[in-house]
Amino acid sequence: IVQEEFLELLDLLVSRARAYVSSLTAMAEFHLSLSQCVVLRYHWIQPFVCALRQRLAPFHRFFCVADQVKVYTNENKTRTFIGLEVSAGHFQLLELVSEVDRVLEEFDLPTFYKDPSFHISLAWCVGDLSERLEGQCLRELQDIVDGFEDSALLLRVPWDQVRCKSGNKYFSFPLR
Question: In the record, which residues are listed under signal peptide (predicted)?
Fold first, then answer.
C-alpha cells in the first residue's frame, strides 16, 4: 500500500512540475546516494566490498525523513532533478558516508561531496532547467507534499541496509 501511495504522490508532483518543464521524466527506481559514482577495476570489486562490509557492520538501523522538495542539477549542468531532501536522519547518513569515504580513500577514489544534500530523486530532464522549477513551481510541489494524506508516514524511510552496485551486481550490507 505504501508503495502505491508513494507512486500516487510522485504522479501528482510530476504532473504539476510538467506545467513548468514538459520534458520531465519520473524516475523508475529510487535511491539515496552515499557516494559519487566511481569506477572500480575488476580486481578491486571483492576487496572493496569486503572493506565496505567491515566498515558498515557496526551501524544500527534507523529512519530518515525525506519531505523537502528541492531542485538539483548534476555537476556539469547537463541534467536537472526534482528530489525530496532529507530533513531528519542527516547525522546518521553523514556517519555512513564517513565510513564509505574511508573505503574510497583506501582505493584512491573520490570521496562524497563535502556538504551533501541527501535526497531521493523523483524526476529528471536534460539540461539546466532549474530556474523554471524553482520559485513558484517548487512552492506548489512542497504544498502537494505537505498536504498529501499520510505523507509524514509515507516519506519516513527505513534504513535497514546499504547497497552497492558494481556493474550489474548488487551487494547488500544489512544494518544491525
Answer: none
Q: Is 119 a catalytic residue?
A: yes
pLDDT truncated to tens, each residue of the chain (176 aa)?
A: 568 999 999 999 999 999 999 999 999 999 999 999 999 999 999 999 999 999 999 999 999 999 999 999 998 999 999 999 999 999 999 999 999 999 999 999 999 999 999 999 999 999 999 999 999 999 999 999 999 998 888 899 999 999 999 989 999 999 99
Please state, in angstroms and rounded to a whole number, the distance separating the CA atoms of residues 37 and 110. Answer: 9
Domain that holds residue 34: 1-174
Catalytic residue among 31, 43, 60, 90: 31
User: How many domains does the chain contain in total?
Assistant: 1
Query: pTM above the 0.70 mark?
Result: yes
- Active-site annotation holder among 43, 60, 90, 119: 119
Q: Is 43 a catalytic residue?
A: no
Cell numbers found for residue 156: 519516513
